[in-house]
Amino acid sequence: MKAQGVVGAIVMAAGGLCPLVHVPIMGNWNYFGIDPYLGSIFYVFVVLALLGALANKTGLMRFSGWAVVVFVILTLLAVWFKTHGAFGFLHFKKLINLASGMVKFKWGWFVILAGALLMLTVRKEKKAFPLDPNRPLT
Fold first, then answer.
1. For residue 22, how many C-alpha atoms fall within 13 Å in the half-sphere facing its CB?
2. Contact 119, 9 (CB under 8 A)
3. Rounded to whole angstroms, how far apart are CA atoms 55 and 86?
4. Handedness of CA 94, 99, 100, 101 (dihedral sign)
5. What is the pLDDT of residues 1-47, one digit of tens each?
6. What is the mean pLDDT of residues 86-106?
7. What is the phi/psi pair of residue 21, to 5°?
8. Is 18 strand, coil or helix?
9. Residue 58: left if φ>0, alpha if ψ -120 to 50, beta else—which one?
10. Coil, strand or helix: which one is 126?
């Protein structure tokens, strides 16, 4: 079991529960507040990372790290486009920018990316060769 992989998966899971977006009047949203399907897909990647850490599969952990990074970028783009497109009923450009500017990104994204960075930096263990009993130590 790789401790770094387990810690990375736990940090990613905690980051998904942290506030990601602040919407006025409605409050802070985590991944499930943004969209339950996105939250479910995100936690599938977290479970894959945890399984990779428990099974000592470096490739699965690194895949999960990259998948979470790509998924976070896609989610950030989706939230940005949704907020800028949701106020299309307003006919003034300044009002659209003002209304979409009220939706703020929060600090939870950094926690998720920190956990993904831990998953990406996991390396394979080097195999140690046993000492030859006939060879003298020098």
1. 8
2. yes
3. 44
4. positive
5. 588 999 999 999 999 999 988 888 878 888 888 889 999 999 999 99
6. 71
7. -135, 135
8. coil
9. alpha
10. coil
